[in-house]
């Protein structure tokens, strides 16, 4: 699986889908936006680093997830569900929350955005 496919899968948990339905998008929210929704993006993906024996490779990409809603409390609720889903799929020990809860708004859309950044290790056989 690719990183973006993994992230979309992680964000497709039932509690999240109950709120956003299928409105989980890569890169940006389509205009005009339909709310609530999630947007995910890879901020950086460092080069793979090999282990000493060369048996596997690991990367630790930085992923941003933005929760969009017209109600700030729905944004907050979605943010908690996203963290729970990532901890479930990635593992609580491996998930690094870099930035949790930068709040923004889009006055033209009358919507709020809750922006979060995460990192976790991904391993590949080579």
CATH topology: STM4215-like
Chain-averaged pLDDT = 82
Give the end-to-end Cα distance, rounded to a whole number of Å: 14 Å
Class derived from helix and strand content = alpha+beta
Protein architecture, described:
This protein is α+β, with helices and mostly antiparallel strands and 126 residues long. The chain has one domain: STM4215-like, CATH 3.30.2000.30. The chain has helices spanning 3-10, 14-20, 72-90; strands spanning 24-26, 37-44, 49-50, 56-59, 62-69, 96-106, 111-119, 122-125. A five-stranded mixed β-sheet has the order 1-2-5-7-6. Strands 3-4-8 form a three-stranded antiparallel β-sheet, with no helix packed on it. The protein is globular, with a radius of gyration of 15 Å. It starts with a helix and ends with a strand.
How is the secondary structure organized here?
Elements: H1 3-10, H2 14-20, E1 24-26, E2 37-44, E3 49-50, E4 56-59, E5 62-69, H3 72-90, E6 96-106, E7 111-119, E8 122-125
Parallel strand pairs: 1-2
Antiparallel strand pairs: 2-5, 3-4, 4-8, 5-7, 6-7
What attributes does this structure have?
single chain; 126 residues; alpha+beta; STM4215-like; five-stranded mixed beta sheet; three-stranded antiparallel beta sheet; 3 helices; 8 strands; 27% helix; globular
How would you sum up this structure in a few lines?
27% of the residues lie in helices and 39% in strands. It is built from 3 helices and 8 strands, in the order ααβββββαβββ.
